[in-house]
Design goal:
Distance between the termini: 117 Å
Radius of gyration: 34 Å
Shape: elongated
Number of helices: 5
Helix content: 10-25%
Number of strands: 19
Structural class: alpha+beta
Largest sheet: 6 strands, mixed
């Protein structure tokens, strides 16, 4: 062979090789060269109306994973006000068109802003993928005395968590109504037994707790006369808040720091019921009339239905701050 032709042949061969490399088909976009196929995860949140779901309702989340691979699992994580609430690991079932499907749900037991996302962790057969968070808010309904159900149970639980009184069982009873009155008094709202949607929302969100004024007193009572409530507290935590009526302007309730000194069970000749005295003739006692404003002759009036419980809660020598 002509020695001059050898370099030319070699050069042509190299050029041909480079052209082959350039025009060689790329790996399919659905899979990594030498690795697992890429996963695509999508979710949809159900039972929403204008981006909201009712408190104590069940909110379903349905999703797909493409492609489907047997044995897949997806982690569905729920968030409340930005913090992780819970994660459900759910199996992926074979769906249509080569995709897999999965389901999860949550019951909205607390107020706030919810969100959910789904994550497929990479395996040898399928790559990983995570969705963006899908968000929604909670809607609320007004509650009324005599109403029963899960929402009422959850409402009463949220009330008791803040220290307000509520009856047991699944229904909205008279004691819960008095707890609502106490809540309204503490928070400067109109004084009634009505649990409107706005109040229900605040309670489920844990807003409106009484702020204890004497946390260093240990277990004690406070009677803020401007709010017309009687508060049992342990340190800075209120655990029982009752509506009261204190002394009217012509016979005001004595103010100051006192201790309980004497008790008188049952009714006395003045119609005072289960009286516990803290200064002279001043006592915490039940009475047939307990308006939502100061109306007594100086004592702290409570509802007849509440007083036996209050009477049992008070201890001899326990502190009460009246202000």
């Amino acid at each position: 062979m002509n020695r001059r032709l050898v370099p030319a042949i070699v050069g042509a061969t190299l050029i041909a090789g480079l052209l082959t490399a350039v025009v060689a088909p790329a790996a399919p976009p659905s899979e990594k060269p030498g690795g697992p196929a890429e996963a695509t995860v999508k979710i949809r949140v159900g039972h929403l109306h204008k981006g909201r779901a009712q408190i104590y309702s069940k909110v379903p989340v349905v999703g797909t994973v493409t492609p489907f691979v047997a044995g897949q699992h997806v982690a569905v994580t729920f968030y409340l006000d930005g913090r992780k609430l819970l994660t459900r690991n759910v199996a992926v079932q074979k769906g249509k068109g080569g995709s897999g499907s999965f389901k999860a749900s949550i019951v909205l037991r607390e107020g706030g802003k919810y969100a959910v996302s789904a994550k497929h962790v990479a395996t040898a057969a399928l790559g990983g993928d995570t969705t963006v968070r899908k968000k929604w808010k909670v809607s609320y309904l007004a509650l009324r005395q005599g109403q029963c159900g899960n929402v009422v149970v959850g409402f009463k639980k949220a009330m008791r968590k803040m220290g307000y009184i509520a009856n047991s069982g699944r229904c909205f009873g008279a004691k819960t109504a008095r707890g609502v009155l106490a809540y309204r008094k503490v928070n400067g709202m109109s004084r009634s037994y009505r649990a409107g949607a706005g109040l229900v929302k605040r309670v489920f969100e844990g807003k409106g707790e009484y702020k204890v004024l004497h946390p260093g007193a240990g277990e004690h009572l406070e009677a803020p006369l401007s709010k017309q409530v009687l508060v049992f507290a342990k340190g800075d935590e209120p655990f029982a808040v009752y509506p009261i009526s204190s002394g009217k302007s012509s016979t005001p309730t004595v103010t100051g720091h006192f201790t309980f000194i004497r008790q008188e069970p049952g009714y006395n000749s003045h119609g005072m019921y289960y009286s516990f005295y803290f200064y002279g003739g001043y006592a915490v006692h039940g009475y047939e009339s307990v308006p939502d404003y100061p109306a007594s002759h100086g004592c702290i009036r409570t509802f007849i239905a509440d007083q036996p419980e209050i009477y049992e809660r008070i201890n001899f020598g326990e502190d009460i701050f009246v202000f």
